[in-house]
Amino acid sequence: MEGTTMKIRTITTGISLDSPKETAKIKMAANFNQKAQMIFAEQGYEVQTTRISTNTWEEYLAGLSLSAIMKEVQVLEELCQSMDVSFFSIGYASSPETIKIIPELKKNTSVIYCSSKIRSHLKNVRESAQAIKRISQESDNGFGNFRFCAWANCPANIPFFPTSYHVGATSFTIGLELGELVMQVFSQARDLEDAEIKLQNTLKLEVGKVVAIAEKISTQFEIKFHGVDSSLTPSLDKENSIAFAYEKLLDGKFGNPGTLAISGMLTRVLKSVSNKNCGYSGLMLPVCEDIGLATRANEQTYDITNLLLYSAVCGCGLDTVPIPGDITTEKIADILSDMATLAFKLNKPLSARLFPIPDKKTGEITSFNSSYLVDCQIFSVN
Fold first, then answer.
1. What whole-number distance in Å separates Cα of residue 197 and Cα of residue 374?
2. Burial class of residue 370, CB neighbours in 10 A (0-12, 13-18, 19+)
3. Strand pairing category for 350-357 and 148-152
4. What's this model's pTM, rounded to 2 decimal places?
5. Are 288 and 320 in contact (CB under 8 A)?
6. Are 173 and 12 spatial neighbours (Cβ–Cβ below 8 Å)?
7. ∠ at Cα 27 (24, 30), nearest 5°?
8. How far apart are CA 200 and CA 204, in angstroms?
9. Which runs of consecutive H residues, i.e. helices, occur in the chain?
10. I want to staple 68 with a disulfide (CB 3.0 to 4.6 A). Which of 64, 212, 275, 370 is the partner?
11. Tens digit of each residue's pLDDT, the chain (382 residues)
C-alpha cells in the first residue's frame, strides 16, 4: 500500500470544566490542538479538523436559569470563534429538564455541539425525540440536527461529534479517516477473506504509526493520550466512499445481500488493529456524509431497518439520516427506542443523528447548503 498516508479526521482534546469561566483551560486546549496538528502535518498527515470536548454541561452550568445558561453558552461560542475553534462539544444532557433546553442552545449557536443520553429502560427517549423535532423546525432545512444526537451506552472520550463528551483529566484522542486506504485494499482483494487479511496487516502498520506519533506528543506536552478511534468514516469524495468500497467485494450494490457480512468483517478488523483503541472503533454509515451511501439511498437499495441491522454488527447507529419533516414525535421516539434497545442488548455504543426535513416528504431530495453534507432522498419511516 505504498504511497497511501492515512488521513486524520480529528484531533479532539477533552477538558473538565467546573465553570464556564475557565477560559484558560479552553485556550490551552485550542493551542495544544494547533501544535499537535502541526506535528502530524510535519510527518505527512493531513489533519482535517481539531475539536474540543468538555464534561457534561450539567456539571458546570447546573442550577442556572435558562437565560443564564444561554448567556454562558453564548460567551463560549464567542470565545471559540475568536480562537477559530469550529467544533466545541458541551457534552450531554441526561435529564428531561436539560434535554428540553437543547433546541434553544442550537438556535443561538453555530459551533456548539451537544447530545442527549438515553438511559436504561429507554428513559429520555421522548424528550430526545421532541428535541430532534423542534431543532428541525427552528433551523434552515433542518440542518441544526447536524450538531445534535441522541445516544445510548456511549463511553466518554469518543473523538467524533456530536456524541463526544469528556471525563477526567485533560487528554486527547485521534479520530481516523480510512476511506482511501480501505478502497485500495478492497480493490486489490480477491474475496472477503483476502480483504480481511490484507486490511488487518495494512491497518496495524498504519495505525501503529499514528499511535507512536501521538504518544510522543503526549510525552512532550504532558497531556494524556487516551487512544485512537479507528472507525471507518465517510467521504464526500466518490473515490473514497464507504459504499463504493463495499462494492469492490459485493456482487451487487451496497444494501444487497453480503453487505452485513462485510460490515461484520470491517468491524472485526477495526477493533483489532491497535491496543490503544477508544470510542466506537467500528464502522460509520452516515448517509448524508458519504457520496456512495447517498447515491444508493436514492436508489433505495437499503432503508432505516437495514441501517439498524448493520448497527448490530458494526458502528455508531443511525447517522445523518434524512426523514420526512412531518414525522410525529412518537415515530422519532420509536426509532430512538429501537436504536437504544440494540445498544443495551448488545452492550455497544450507538447513537442517532436524524434529520427531519421541514416541508419535505419521503422520496424528495434534501437541500442542505453545507460543505459537510451531500443531498439525498428522504427515507421512508413507515
1. 32
2. middle
3. antiparallel
4. 0.94
5. yes
6. yes
7. 155
8. 6
9. 23-42, 57-60, 66-82, 96-99, 102-107, 125-137, 179-188, 192-221, 242-246, 259-270, 291-298, 304-311, 329-346
10. 64
11. 444 568 899 999 999 999 999 999 999 999 999 999 999 999 999 999 999 999 999 999 988 999 999 999 999 999 999 999 999 999 999 999 999 999 999 998 999 999 999 999 999 999 999 999 999 999 888 889 999 999 999 999 999 999 999 999 999 999 998 888 899 999 999 999 999 999 999 999 999 999 999 999 999 999 999 999 988 887 778 788 999 999 999 999 999 999 999 999 999 999 898 889 888 888 889 999 999 999 999 999 999 999 999 988 877 789 999 999 999 999 999 999 999 999 999 999 999 999 999 999 999 999 988 888 999 999 999 7
- Amino acid in position 192: L
What is the spatial distance between Cα 142 and Cα 359, in angstroms, rounded to a whole number? 10
Instruction: Specify the amino acid at residue 35.
Output: K
Cell triple for 52: 474540543
